[in-house]
Structure formats: C-alpha cells, structure tokens
Amino acid sequence: MAVSFTQKRLYRVGSRPLDRDANEVTRLAEAVWYRNYRPRQEELERLRDVMPREEFQRTLCVLEILSLYPVCRRDTAKHLQALTRRFHRQLLGGDDAPVKGRYSPSKRWGLPDTTNLVRKALLPLQTRAYADSTERRHGLSV
C-alpha cells in the first residue's frame, strides 16, 4: 500500500511517545496551523489499518491537542475535533467529546504518555509574533 507524505508525517507522530520526542509534533503543528493541512477521514482510516492501536490513538491525541490552541483556525479546529471525536467513539466507545477547561488528552485517549514536552515545544509556534511572521492566515488573524 502506498502511503502519502502527510500520512508518513501522521505515522511518525504516533510512533514516538509524546514524552520523548516533540520534533514530529511541531512539524505537524506547522502544517496544520500555517499551511492549511487538514487530515481527511479516509487518510486516518488508512492509517488505522497499518498502525498499532496505541500509536494511532497517539496520532489522534496530537490532532486533538493541536485543535485546542487559539492559533488553529476555527474551521480547522472544528474539523479536527469532529474527526477525533468520531474515532474516539469507534476506538474507546461513547461520545466522549473533549471537556472544557483543563484535562489530560493523553489520559482521555488511554495513553501512558504525558504531554508536557509537546506543549512546551508548541509554545513558540503559537505566539502571535511567530504566527504573524509566517505571513499566512491563522487562528489569531483578525
């Protein structure tokens, strides 16, 4: 089965524990936040077929995290949240929509990882100064 470049990126994000390496996550964040990349359901379904379950859940956890930052465009955030909610229902049961306020995405997805390293790595990418320097539309655009 041929795997696209974007599927490889999603695969790499899921293949590394979130508390060990954030490089692939930051690359995915750049693509989602600033280059208008929006994974399609078909793309994720193909990945589900080739990835171990925990790694696929990690990929979905990262997509959910990216959707929560204000720098993510509203339409992209809604798209990602709908996708992750659909897969969460399929993989873990229930209609477990993300809760408002503080919560642990990794626990919600049943992962042993912590997200501290990922969140710290994403901080510089989601500032207004950085977002504006990309000269692309983003969630903080007026």
Describe, in short, the structure shown.
This protein is mainly alpha-helical. It is 60% helix and 0% strand.
Any overview of this molecule?
With 142 residues, this protein is mainly α. It has 8 helices and no strands. The radius of gyration is 14 Å and the shape is globular. The model has no long low-confidence stretch (mean pLDDT 88).
Quick tags:
globular, 8 helices, 142 residues, 0% strand, single chain, 60% helix, mainly alpha
Give the helix/strand layout.
Elements: H1 5-15, H2 23-34, H3 41-50, H4 53-68, H5 74-92, H6 105-108, H7 116-122, H8 128-133
* Strand percent estimate: under 5%
Number of helices: 8
- End-to-end separation: 42 Å
Succession of helices and strands: HHHHHHHH
Average predicted confidence as pLDDT: 88
Query: How would you describe the shape?
Result: globular
Spans of at least 5 consecutive residues with low confidence: none
Structural class: mainly alpha
Report Rg.
14 Å
Largest sheet: none
Total count of strands:
0
Helix content: 55-70%
